[in-house]
Prior knowledge:
Strand order of the largest sheet: 10-11-12-9-3-13
Distance between the termini: 57 Å
Mean pLDDT: 96
Radius of gyration: 21 Å
CATH topology of one domain: Gyrase A, domain 2
Structural class: alpha+beta
Strand content: 25-35%
Number of strands: 19
Amino acid sequence: xxxxxxxxxxxLHRTHVAAGARMAPFGGWDMPVQYEDGIISEVRxxxxxxxxxxxxxMARFQFVGPEAVxxxxxxxxxxxxxxSLGRARYHVICNEQGGIIDDAIVYRITxxxxxxxxxxxxxxAVRDWLIPSAQQNGGVFFADLSEDVAMIAVQGxxxxxxxxxxxxxxxxxxxxxxxxxxxxxxxxxxxxRTGYTGEDGFEIMPPADRAVDLWRALEAEGVVPAxxxxxxxxxxxxxxxxxxxxxxxxxxxxEAGLERFTYIDTPGYVAGVALRAIRDAGTxxxxxxxxxxxxxxxxxGLAVMxxxxxxxxxxxxxxxxxxxxxxxxxxxxxxxxxxxTRFEIDVRGRLVEAEVVSLPFxxxxxx
Length: 367
């Protein structure tokens, strides 16, 4: 019998291995963590020039039909009906109790077609949440495009300029959180001006059998391949959350600080009643960013301490090469979340002082 636990591979898997990438399991996929020059070098490439990531492991779900938009509005906190054609929206997907199943981006492709991009590790949970209800609605037709369509993120201050050289559209005409059809290096693709690094750039979706061609074309233009290790550092520097670390189905969007991405007023929205109650009651803890004052790196799961008592938990932390500082995020008591507040992080039995700072830690310069 085949190994049901075997890791899945993206269309670029052999390309990563041939380039000397260190591979590791992530969300059920065998993914590149870093290449030979290392994570810090890759982070700097993205912050200073342009880097690219294979994000083909993320789920791409298509919903089509006369009831597709209305259906998604009942299931997502996104006001899909309010999106004009070609627009995208980041949002949370919540269950009936208000717990976060996933955070995702929904794209309004046409009047009756939407694309939902979800996290790899939550693909099954999102599918299980949406598909049974979709199947009960005769006006909604679902297709999983994840096998047929690849996804490459190109990010950095030179990303738009570089992709422009490969795209006659031009790519720079695609505004942030918009999506268009375009040819990139002669490859028909869907191009979205979205990303997960805090930099400008695109997430390009070519046919799976042309992913290697696109990767090579971008590499020839000087785009640096980067792995998930760099991506994690970059997203944390930008104050972006990772489902499974910074939020789970046990968290709601109000304590996670995601209320601005949570539209709850659509009539019939499945989580509307629960989320309105949570919003009105308030939450005793809230997601907070902090910078270490003493020496030590905050890691996921470490305790946040104040006056000898635990007042929170670190959800993400790292050394930021961009800021040359140790930074982290976590849930703390709301009374300790104000900027400038100090508490300690228990780093292997040693209490290390940290100070609350505003998010994001890093913001790109806008020209």
